[in-house]
Amino acid sequence: MFIESEHIYLRAIESSDVDLLYNIENDISIWKISQTITPFSKEILQLYLDSSHQDIYTTKQLRLMICLKQTNEAVGTIDLFDFDPMHLRVGIGILIFKNFRKKGLAYESIELVKNYVRNILMLHQIFCNISASNADSILLFEKSGFEKFGIKKQWNKISAYCFEDEYLYQLIF
Predict the structure, then answer these.
(1) Which residues of 65-80 are buried (b: 16+ CB within 10 A; e: fewer)?
(2) Is 102 part of a structural domain of the chain?
(3) DSSP 73-137
(4) How many domains does the chain have?
(5) What tens digit of pLDDT does each residue of 2-46 get?
(6) N or C: which end of the chain has fewer CB within 10 A?
């Protein structure tokens, strides 16, 4: 594996991940963060997995599984999205499963992806969008060198008549 650090490695998603992805994508507790409003079927996820072999230049996105080196257990996912090869930028999102949070795995994963984006894809910048109330993600991305460069006011509806700001972060190499 070429995308690895001391404790983790990042790997491509595989057909055997369909049940895990089904549980992630249908976990209502994270829909607010992922901007999801409808459940996914296993059939739709299998179609996604079947096309996941295509490269980021074709699909403009890449999902990697975060796995522990010691046990090979998947502990989360990290996504690159909105890949723009003309302007040399890509978005990033990360999810660490509940039992594995607060162990430094998200930071380690972001550092691996930063290296991949800079040295393999040869991009100029990475960006992310974080809800104003997501203090853990704000701390994580700031620790990883991302800077807040903008605020989308009342960007996300969180209840019938309540909206929340979203921060725009970027890391320029």
Answers:
(1) bbbeeeeeebbbbbbb
(2) yes
(3) -EEEEEEEEEEETTTTEEEEEEEE-GGGTTSSHHHHHHHHHHHHHHHTS--SEEEEEEETT-HHH
(4) 1
(5) 799 999 999 999 888 877 877 777 666 665 665 666 766 766 656
(6) N
